[in-house]
Amino acid sequence: MSALGRVRQWNAFSQVWHLFDAKWQNPFQSAAVITKYLMGKHKPFYHPFANCGDVVVVINSRHIALLGDEWKKRVYFHHTGYPGGASWTLAWELHEKSPTMILEKAVYSSMKGNLQRRHTMKRLIIYPDDIIPEDIHTNISSQIKQLRKVPKVLESDEVNNFPRIFKLPVDYVPS
Amino acid sequence: MSLLNSFRNHNNFRNILATASSLFFKRNIFLSQSLYLKEVKEVKINNQLIIEANIIPAPEEDRLLKTALNTECCAVCSLGVDIKHTDVPLLAQFVRSDGCMLPRRITGLCKIQHKRITYMVAMAQKAGLMSILTPPDSKKDPKRRPKWKKFNTYFDESTIQLPKEYKIKIKDF
Ligand SMILES: [Zn+2]
């Protein structure tokens, strides 16, 4: 085997660690992208029996964004198994208790329920903030593109430098 | 400078040059609020004193877009840009310093665009993107809001629903 072919094979079968910044991202839309990398479906030689999945490190899961009023409309159901053991938790209540669980559940439910799913989920590492342990940080060599642009908060000097859209009346004084 | 003038913040206002008139008339108290819209000039030509009050151009005049002078429909229609609720520097021009919308007689918007901008300003405020333009007693930092309001939220502009009578016009637009 030539030297180039050897390197190509290493690259093909090495496990890449991807970073995903979940700041202002919809967890359910990003889950579809994260699963693709977790299962290795972005590789041309993907096969469900082959162990070709990558590792995805998700940061800023505390700062995910939901659409409209989903924080108070989305409900998570749990049953303890005992009579009267059903409970319904709203998304914002769950996110207060565990800032990583909504994203983890979103990725878990975006995959098909088979024996492989639990093993694939072990390759997903989620952190609520942007602080990563050093031993995980050294492994990261790739980044997944964000689906949504992180919106900018308005600053006072921005208003005074932006082009004016409409003409104010001559005698108008802003208040 | 008169006493009454000094309590207002001049930063936002057109230039202050109304002092000349108060000195001339020996008057330090104004019965009406001074707006600093005009510059008072005294010109002496051959024993003739001319006092003229010229309107001062607004400081934002040089940043005015050419489309603003288009009289076809309104400023937003002639801009021809798909405005999103995240375009906060643009939306900030349509609100007062406490975050409430300017009326249509000042902005000159058509009914459709006024309604759309109003909804998008509300979206930006709920997402906490325009917290510097809020009433002074409001919680500026979105993280300090109660319950679900403290978490990041984004909006879809296609969910903006206009009244039935507006909808026919939007097809033409
Ligand atoms: Zn218009």
Automatic annotation (TrEMBL), chain A:
Belongs to the universal ribosomal protein uL13 family. It holds the Pfam family Ribosomal_L13. This is 39S ribosomal protein L13, mitochondrial. One of its GO terms (cellular component) is mitochondrial large ribosomal subunit. SUPFAM superfamilies: Ribosomal protein L13. The keyword Ribosomal protein applies. GO terms for biological process: negative regulation of translation; translation. InterPro entries: Ribosomal_uL13, Ribosomal_uL13_bac-type, Ribosomal_uL13_sf. One of its GO terms (molecular function) is mRNA binding. PANTHER family: LARGE RIBOSOMAL SUBUNIT PROTEIN UL13M (PTHR11545:SF2), RIBOSOMAL PROTEIN L13 (PTHR11545). Keywords: Ribonucleoprotein, Ribosomal protein. It comes from Nezara viridula (Southern green stink bug).
TrEMBL record, chain B:
It comes from the Eukaryota. One of its GO terms (molecular function) is small ribosomal subunit rRNA binding. GO terms for cellular component: mitochondrial small ribosomal subunit. The keyword Membrane does not apply. One of its GO terms (biological process) is mitochondrial translation. Signal peptide: none annotated. Keywords: Ribonucleoprotein, Ribosomal protein. InterPro entries: Ribosomal_bS18, Ribosomal_bS18_sf. Pfam families: Ribosomal_S18 (PF01084). This is Uncharacterized protein.
